[in-house]
Design goal:
heterodimer, A: mainly alpha, 4 helices, B: mainly alpha, 8 helices, about 60% helix, elongated
Amino acid sequence: MMTDQSMDPASHPLAMMSIPRQEWCEPYEWSTALEEGTIFPNLNLTFFKAPQGVPAKPPCSDTSDPGQKSREEALSRLTEISFALNDLTLYLDTHPACEHGLFLYHNLMEERLALLADYAKKYYPLTQASMITGNCNPQCYGWGDGPAPWEGACV
Amino acid sequence: MFAYEKRLQYPVKIKKTDPTAARLIISQYGGPDGELSASMRYLAQRYSMPVKKVGGLLTDIGVEELNHMEIICAMVYQLTRDLSEEDVKAAGFDAYYIDHTKALYPQAAAGVPFTALELQSKGDPFADLYEDLAAEQKARTVYDNLLRVIDDPDVRAPLKFLRAREIVHFQRFGEALEVTKERFEHSNFYFINPSFDHASKESRV
């Protein structure tokens, strides 16, 4: 019988599971990553009833109002960047020395903070800190502005 | 501490009322493999994890599960917000409606209320990590089952996203298991309980 070297009991003791460590791979575009639920193509293990790329896009309204459209685009971009950071955070929790991951983390976090400030300045604050970084009017308490997230609106 | 950000991790925009789908999806709010029990499980287990890095991972995944709970609740809410009396009677939503009207209440698809009996915090790193690995697999199966029976693309998009997260979390807990193994006795991992017998100050760093 052939012996599988990778399951040698010296390195893989009995009665204990082993799982391979994920290697870094080139991430998806951030919009695709959000759609697929991970930034990593090598972790995207789809189900036959929900194959890759289907449904094509997260749902968004078919508005013709240009102001509404730009608000929705700004929120979409923020959602994509923030999700990439969420997924990358879990990766770095178990790969804290990965240079690719660290470099990306800092770049994405800079973009996220800028997007949050911009969103607060143009529309309404999504975080309390962005009331300051977005230079919101200190005479107005803006934390209650904007729709509740569960309404599915972006007004 | 936790701070709120006024948006969903994945957008939910459902146009069509569907109390039947709501009745099924609510299981991922308060059901046995739901997001609430996932979050409570990880946030409870982190205190007694002997490897600090693993406690950090449990915190980050536990918080992400709260984000997922919010996505599930938004789905149930949007599927039922325009519910009429006729919808209530026609779609098998009547029993839920009698107790909760259109409010959100954590329960399983079959009506069993959320209970902490659905999760465990055992105080042994191997027992707890195996529980977490199993939890991610069970939740993935629920999303597989939902994706089989629900056709509306507005509902399927977030379900597909949430299913993918279960697999990523499974991989991370597997890596956490490897990190934990590296820290303890390789010839017999079960000789002591590292959370209890090694609970000295230096093992917590």
